[in-house]
Q: What sequence folds into this?
C-alpha cells in the first residue's frame, strides 16, 4: 500500500474539486450560460460537467469556485 495521502505530489498538485451549485438560468447562447447564483456569472458550456433538476431548482456540476 502506498502512502498516497501524504505524498509530496498530492501536496503540490491537489486534485480539482467539483461541486453541485444551485443556479437560476438567465440566458443561454451556443457557448455559455448566464446564471444567477448570488451574482450574475457567465459559465462556458465546456466547463459544465453535469446539469440536474432537484426540487424545482437547476443545479450544475462545476469546478469549485466557478459559480459565485
A:
Amino acid at each position: 500500500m502506498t502512502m498516497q495521502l501524504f505524498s509530496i505530489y498530492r501536496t503540490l498538485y491537489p486534485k480539482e474539486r467539483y461541486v453541485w451549485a444551485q443556479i437560476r438560468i438567465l440566458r443561454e447562447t451556443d457557448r455559455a450560460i448566464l446564471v444567477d447564483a448570488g451574482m450574475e456569472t457567465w459559465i462556458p458550456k465546456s466547463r459544465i460537467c453535469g446539469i440536474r433538476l432537484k426540487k424545482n431548482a437547476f443545479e450544475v456540476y462545476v469546478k469549485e469556485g466557478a459559480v459565485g
